[in-house]
Amino acid sequence: MTDQPNARPELDEAALAFAEAVFESTRKGDSARLADLLGRGLPANIRNHNGDSLLMLASYHGHLDASRVLLQHGADPQLRNDKGQSPLAGAAFKGNLEMTRLLLDHGADVESASPDGKTALMMAAMFNRNEIVELLLARGADPARSDMNGVTPLAAAQSMGAQDTPRLLTDALAARN
């Protein structure tokens, strides 16, 4: 017991080592181990010291099977890390089309934004991820939405020198009118 009302309980070395092993298994994409641990009661939405959930780590590192296992065990695709980053934005940034599709299929909000207003569409557009831009637009991403600085996906793509996504976004904007 502690005198501080919101103090976290101290974890012993064995618990800390176990937690680190779980996060390392996730980063490596060990879907069988994750399925076993989740089946024995491991919470699907635990986070590390950066606020990264197991799903954030699995999806960011491109582990489709591990991400699927986590989602099947109730991992929240909307759960953000301490920087306000979502698994969907990470998948878009990394250019992983299948991961982006998996997250959307399991409820990730296509319009979800980081604290500065950046969406997965902006991330994909900036890094010229054509197929992901097309998928996000098809799933309802708003090509006219701007971040907190007034930057749209088109402006972000142009400022980063993206070769193809500006045309996709221009076409999407024209189709709205």
Automatic annotation (TrEMBL):
Q: Which Gene3D superfamilies match?
A: Ankyrin repeat-containing domain
Which segments carry the ANK repeats? Answer: 50-82, 83-115, 116-148
* Alphabetical list of SUPFAM superfamilies matching this protein: Ankyrin repeat (SSF48403)
Report the domain of life of the source organism.
Bacteria
- The yes or no answer to whether the keyword NADP is present is no
Pfam families found in the cross-reference section: Ank_2
UniProt keyword list: ANK repeat, Repeat
Protein name in the entry: Ankyrin repeat domain-containing protein
Name the source organism: Stutzerimonas zhaodongensis
